[in-house]
Amino acid sequence: MGRPRCLCEICTCGRHRCLHKPTRIYDNGQQPCLTTEYVEKYPKYSNISPPWSFKPKQEYQVHHGKMEGITTFKSDYLPYSIVKQHFQVQEEYKPKTGEIELGTTYQKDYNAHKIEPVTLVRPLERKRTTGGKLDTIPTYQDDYRPWEVQRREATKAVHIYHPPTEKFGNSTTFQDDFVPRELNPRQSFKPPCIAKISDVPFDAATSHRISYIAHQLEPKFIRPKEEYKPSNQPFVDLTTHRNDFKGLPGELAKSCKPEIAKVGSNARFNGVTEFQDRFQPWLVSLPEVRKTREYVPPPGSIDFNSTSHLDYIKHEISPAFPIRPVSNRRRTNAPFQGSTTTKEDFKAWGTCRQEIIKKQQEIPKPMGKFYDLTTFKSHYIPHQITPTQSFKPVHAIALNSGPFQNETMYHTEYTPKKLEICPANYPSPPGYVYVNTDSHGHKFFRQCTPEFSESESNPIPKEIAVVS
After folding, report:
1. pLDDT in tens, 400-415
2. Which helix (H) or strand (E) holds 38?
3. Strand, coil or helix: what is 12?
4. Tens of pLDDT, residues 134-157
5. Sign of the torsion angle spanned by Cα atoms 447, 449, 453, 458
6. DSSP letters for 97-130
7. Residue 435 class from Cβ within 10 Å (0-12 exposed, 13-18 middle, 19+ buried)?
8. What are the backbone angles phi and psi of residue 288, rounded to the nearest 5°?
9. What is the pLDDT of residues 5-21, one digit of tens each?
10. Beta bridge partners of 446
11. Residue 424, exposed/middle/buried by CB under 10 A (0-12, 13-18, 19+)?
12. In angstroms, rounded to a whole number, what is the distance separating the alpha carbons of residues 362 and 257?
């Protein structure tokens, strides 16, 4: 009978811990809680002082010396003597003597062929006509014919407008409130809009015209074009692929896809469906149709006279004329002066559009017919292809007649080990008696039997539920 042990101490797998309580009101713990993850994983070292830092302190150090005015650029700069750059004088162009040969390989090898117009393979369209007369009466005109209905006369009374003979004596609010007054135009102090023409002649001299000095330009150097020299050797059109490639004979790959066999039956199709067999027709009565009543017009004639039409009194109305005086606008009979400073000082120049400069064709266009014989067809020489011998070994699987050895290093050297169950895995560890729980949440158990052994325990379960 030793001292009581906590569930954290009884655990042998390291996965079981007691539930720690967040607060404690009454402290009845027997020992301080020293079991933490940091204490278990990190061992304790001896008293070692932390290393001394050699990093300088970030303090501002005042320089008490005198500041010199010499910079790095002043001390390292060395002046060099400037030499004037020498420009190479271009040589005078001297054209070569002789005539240019404008003949090409195409003109030499081109042979004209006689071309005939292509004959049409499509047969001519034949239009079939009939001698009968076309009946142009549409279905609508034949089936739908107008009814003979007489137009009903209007019962509305005809009223002719007669202008009133009496004068309309109602004046408007504007005529009552407006008092006509004499117009006194104010004197305008705006200066007259007349352009002042200067008598001094226009001075067209600018600073550019006065200060500009014309210099004589040197003649521009024109590089002559190099003369094309055709090669005297014949053109070799055989490529490396054509010379080195030699095809290998082989059989075509056979398709592994099964043949599509049409599944068919010679039996006659039975047209009777499940719906036709099970459907039983019901006796349905026809819906009753209600007869509409015939329209009976009311007796007598309609009186179109209304109350407004009978009580309305017509008056003679004359159009109202405005009492407001007409505004007097200033009208001048002088002609419009459209000359401006820009029109007088800047006058249009007489220019003409420059013609397009076209370069003359040096090579004349061919006048003959086109030959269908190209340089490739004329110079191509067919060669016989000899297949290369393949040295690749045949992909054949070598069969061994001996029995298969299924023994491996893992199979021979593996030794099974016994599974040990942690005593803290059970709700109450076997061989222990519950004592109490302290304020930290630790459950203490006292050992009442010898150490827990595997032979005395329950049978080993395959799946173990972890209880914390």
Report:
1. 777 777 778 888 888 8
2. helix 37-41
3. coil
4. 777 777 777 777 788 787 887 777
5. negative
6. PS------HHHHH-------PPPP-SPPP-----
7. middle
8. -75, 135
9. 888 888 888 788 777 66
10. 433
11. buried
12. 66
* Tokens (6 digits) for 45: 């070292």
The string over 6-19, giving b where at least 16 C-beta atoms fall within 10 Å of a residue's C-beta and e elsewhere, is: bbbebbeeeebbbe
Strand partners, 437: 443
Distance CA 338, CA 331 (A): 18
Q: Which of 260-269, 343-352, 389-398, 426-435 has the highest mean pLDDT?
A: 426-435
Structure tokens at 196: 């002042």
Q: How far apart are CA 462 and CA 271, in angstroms?
A: 65
Contact assessment for residue 456 and residue 449, using Cβ atoms and an 8 Å cutoff: no
Q: Determine the average pLDDT of the residues in 38-66.
A: 74
Two structure tokens written together for 149: 């209905």
Q: How confident is the prediction for the chain on average, in pLDDT? A: 77
3 state DSSP class of 50: coil
The pair of three-digit structure tokens given for residue 91, joined into one six-digit string? 């040589």
pLDDT at residue 46 above 50? yes
Query: Phi/psi class of residue 378: alpha, beta or left (left: φ > 0; alpha: ψ in -120 to 50)?
Result: alpha
Q: What is the DSSP letter of 280?
A: -
Question: Long-range pairs for 24-30 at CB < 8 Å and ≥24 separation?
Answer: 24/439, 24/440, 25/439, 26/439, 27/439, 28/438, 28/439, 29/438, 29/439, 29/440, 29/442, 30/4, 30/438, 30/444
Per the CB < 8 A criterion, the answer to whether 424 and 464 are in contact is no
Q: How far is CA 418 from CA 407, 455, 460, in A?
A: 24, 11, 10
Per-residue pLDDT of 283-325, as tens digits, reads: 888 888 888 888 888 888 888 888 888 888 888 888 777 777 7
State the virtual CA torsion across 320, 326, 327, 330 in degrees, nearest 10.
140
In the chain, what percentage of residues exceed pLDDT 70? 86
H or E stretch covering 434 = strand 432-437
Residue 457: pLDDT band with limits 50, 70, 90:
very low
